[in-house]
Amino acid sequence: xxxxxxxxxxxxxxxxxRSASEYGYQSGVIQGPSGILRVAVSPANAVVEYVRxxxxxxxxxxxxxxxxTHRYTIQGR
Length: 77
Prior knowledge:
The protein has 77 residues and is mainly beta. Helix content is 6%, strand content 30%.
């Protein structure tokens, strides 16, 4: 089983990961809240990608809206 905390695409603070520990999360891949999940499903597997969304002022070299900052695959049965 995979528990996926869903990003808050409209959250104005792209760098706020402090709240994850405040909610009791102690492990996992914790990233800033501003982004979306992109899921591609096939008979063989499902690929989940975290696609970041930054306000224009938050973008910089190496940090752009549309960057995939985490990806994992769930194998089919």
